[in-house]
Structure formats: structure tokens, C-alpha cells
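seq/struct pair 1
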Amino acid sequence: MTAQDICRSPGYLPAPALFLNTFSAQEGQQVLFRCSIDQQTPATRIVFCKDGVEVYSLKAQQAELIYPMLLNVTRGSSGTYTCGYQHRNESNWVRSSALSASRNLTVTGETWHWGTGRHRSRPP
């Protein structure tokens, strides 16, 4: 099973929780996503999804419960985000979690022009 599969067809292990430090950001800013898994959950891989497609994954570490993803915001960053995890056992079988509750990120219409020190609204 691939990470993209978990984003489109999650499994049955308990869902993690997804936290964002903001739900609205401007281009050029950074948003911190945190995927939190249960202490009793055996995870080998953490996956972050946007609109049903993998955008980032990382290897799980033993005793680690919170996994971060730092997103540099662009126009295309608006969307619905979830996270999940996978567990590969000693027989190489992969089981996937249910996905976290979804979180929406909105990119606002103003951008900062560093050279001019001015804001301008992005055209619709």
C-alpha cells in the first residue's frame, strides 16, 4: 500500500489528530502542521495529505507522538488537509490508520512585496 492510497482509501487503525497554527495565511508565510498519534499506536510512517493526495511523509520514530510539517505558503496551498499513519509489521504487512479530521487552510489575497515594503491585493 502506498502513501497515496492512505490519502484516498484510509484504513482502520485509530485516527491521529491534526493541528495547524493558523487556518488562514498569506503567500510567503509558513504554516506549522502537527500530526499527533496515540501513545499506544505503532506507526512506521506518517503521511500528510492535501485534497486526497500525499504532500509530505516522514519515517516515524519510536516514542515520538507528534510529527511536524512546515509548509511555505503559496497560492496553491489553499485546501483541505489530513494526516494518517502506516504500520509495517515484521511480516512486511502494511496497515493504515483512518485519517485525521480534516482542516482547511485558506490563502488570503494579500501578498507582501519585500523590495517595496507594500501590500497589494492579488487579482481574483
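seq/struct pair 2
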Amino acid sequence: MTGFSKIAVYRQDLPPTGGYAPMSWARVPARRIPLWPFVSLWVVSNIFGYFYHASEKRHYWQNEMETDESRSCIEPVLLAEQDRIVLRQYRANRDEETKLMNDVPGWEVGTWFGDKVFKSRTFFPDRPHLLDYYGVSRPSTQRLDVNASQWQL
């Protein structure tokens, strides 16, 4: 015989003797978290932040003043150096013109077909024209110098 022919005995599930424990169905309010620690932390951090910001602002402006003073002190040196570079290039242009035009009869260096370019000896432009400055140089030199932004202070 197989196990299928046995009669199964069923037992109904019943509550425990003495009954179930009472179920609490009353409203249980949530535990209140006190607000004063958060407010006090916020107040303390704001006070600290105010004084820290004031101190950092003072240091920032001190550094800015020092930077401005150093820029104003170094500016004449930089301008003189730029003028020196320009004069050196003008001299190189003049030497190159002398070398190029020495075979042309009646050519006077520094003139435009015999007319003086500048009417006075004291005139010196703030920024030379690119064609004057790079008149006899290679285009690659001009591109390199222009991209190097040598005129910026």
C-alpha cells in the first residue's frame, strides 16, 4: 500500500488557551525632538561664520592692496622693457633696410621715397603699427609675437 490510502487527520487551528494578548489600538504620539539644540547650533555657526568671513575679507583686501602696489611698482619697468624691445626691432628693421636697399641709387634709409616718415624726432607711437614693426621679418615671427601678447601688462 501506498501512503495515499491513509486517512489524513485534520486539526483545526484554535486560539491559545486563555485567549490572545490585548491589542493596543490607542494613538501613540511620536517622540518629540527638542528644537533648542538645532537653533543653538545654527546661531553659533552663524556667529562663527560672520567673524570668519570678516577676517577672510580683511586678508583678501590686504592681498589685493599688496598686489595693486606691486603692479604699480613694476609697471614702469615693464613699459621700459617693451620700449626697449620695440627700439631693438626698429633698429633691426633699419639695418635690414640698409642691407636690402644699398644697391638702389638715391635711397635714403628711414624715408618714404625721400619724404621723412616722422616730422619730429620726439614722436614715438605707443604701439607700433604691425607693418612697421614686422616690415622685413618672416610671417611666422609675426604670428608668434602677436600670439604671445607681449603688450599686456
